[in-house]
Amino acid sequence: MNPTSAQPDDLVARAEAWAAEDPDPTTASELKALLAAAADDAGSRAELADRFSGPLAFGTAGLRAALGAGPNRMNRVVVRHTAAGVARYLLDIAAGAYTPRAVVGFDARYNSDVFAEETAAIFTAAGIETFLMPSRLPTPVLAWAVLALDCEAGVMVTASHNPPQDNGYKVYLGGRAVTDAGQGAQIVAPMDVDIAERIAASGPLPELELARDGWTVLPAAGEPGDIQERYLQAITSLVPAQGTERAERSALRIVLTPMHGVGGDTMSRAFTATGFTDVRMVAEQAAPDPDFPTVAFPNPEEPGAIDLALALARDVDADLVIANDPDADRCAAAVHDPDAGWRMLSGDEVGALLGLHVARRLAGGPAAGGQAPVFANSIVSSRLLSRIAAGAGIAHGATLTGFKWISRVPGLSFGYEEALGYCVAPELVRDKDGMSAALLLADFAARLKASSRTLLDELDELALEHGLHATDQLSVRVSSLEELQALMARLRTRAPAVFAGSEVTTVTDLSAGTDGLPPTDAMLFTTADDSRVIVRPSGTEPKLKCYLEVIEPVASPGDLPDARARARQRLSAVRTDTGTALGL
């Protein structure tokens, strides 16, 4: 029977069976209480039905959902089956020719450590040589370890910047399990389907074997071979601090917030090791806390999330604010604007600045590994990086949204996506890494300060050279998949003819694939004045996301203020017209 159409009696029976088998007394008790309440309460019955409307789908983002009992939630039962499916996938690829290796990491969210240890136990029992991180550490440390330890797989238990009630399960593949440029990257199709099939075939829970021991806990802080220290040595080699450079960096005052996540210690140590000695931590957000008590959402992009950091920056007269999300794979930055006070840089602005800095560092030599350098960004990110790359004689590629695609670009030297994700050293971490990105951005800011310049000055220079690229987003939260589908269908059947008074010249349905990109559910519109709108459903939230970009010519430095005003007006009009096209 389709679980979404199960009759009440069947639902109750399945829930009772789950509760009786659940190895976690907390979720078992929670489910029993919900069962009792469902007898008389419609809301409890709906909650029960939702928990058993699954199973939770395993996709290219792995798993991510609210914690709780039931197949449509994150819990020990779901994690055990998932680990068994991943193990079977690795063993099937190996086909007896070698013993697969895997490394497992976890952050500070509720049950992350439990899910990680049970994954290690499932892997070990299946015959996979398994390494377990010694403590709660950032996602980039795990992604680095997949390559550094030559593993066939990496699993990170995290829900990144999701709300406190969520957790997730991210899977990387490497070693002998990968033959393309995605060595050490997140999985892509059809890997997700192959793993999902094995999860579904993993059998009854009592038959899933867990080893009592046998996996290797990696060296902790202070021990020989400390895994965190090895990662730090790798990323700090990107910006060695010597002589003049160390003096420049010590003069830069940084405010840092890990947003109640696991990046604070690692990021602080990285700054210190590279000569950034004037770093002020936001005390209220310094310690890992799975409740994220000072923010509504633990995402630097959300309104109010970095208010405490900005307040501290004003108090101490800082030069730069760095905010990592809770698993530290993203990096946000804020700077002081003489005309507007402290403001957060957009993901596209940081991407352009890092791209410019990397391009200058690459000038005169090949990228890591001796290959010609390549820059890449997701199609929903600004087109400015492609112009920076062209100006530096560097090849550029555009990919679908997500680092699972960006990190697979052959010869990648730098990649980014507008959602605060940056890959500045793909030879070390084949994924976004908010800590190495923060180091390079701070290095750039320190060099500029030594020359009495700022990051904003560099953005102005880019606008003069390539036009002012202004971006914005419109996000539409929905209540169901059907609503998302209806909104996309509306765009496909009634495509807008004009944005901000400029005629739409191209309409591209990306569901058919285009320019070598795999098919994806998105629509792309460009106009006669080079404005661009891309609309797609979010891959991690119940949202429709609209990415807006206008390019405003800048005649001279004196024209910059007027160009910004014109760009704001055009963006506002494009945003309004996008909402109208969606029927909002």
What does this structure look like?
The protein has helices spanning 8-21, 25-38, 42-51, 76-94, 112-126, 139-148, 191-200, 227-236, 244-250, 264-273, 307-316, 347-362, 384-391, 403-406, 434-450, 455-466, 481-493, 560-581; strands at 63-66, 101-106, 129-132, 153-157, 166-173, 185-186, 216-217, 254-257, 279-281, 320-324, 331-337, 341-344, 374-378, 395-399, 412-417, 421-423, 468-477, 498-499, 502-509, 523-527, 532-537, 543-552. The chain is an alpha/beta fold. The chain has 4 domains: 1-53, no CATH class; 57-217, 3-Layer(aba) Sandwich (Alpha-D-Glucose-1,6-Bisphosphate, Chain A, domain 3); 251-466, Alpha-D-Glucose-1,6-Bisphosphate, subunit A, domain 3 (Alpha-D-Glucose-1,6-Bisphosphate, Chain A, domain 3, 3-Layer(aba) Sandwich); 467-581, 2-Layer Sandwich (TATA-Binding Protein), CATH 3.30.310. The strands form 4 sheets. Strands 1, 2, 3, 4, 5, 6 and 7 form a 7-stranded mixed beta sheet that branches. The longest helix has 22 residues, at 560-581. Mean pLDDT is 94; it is low at 1-6.
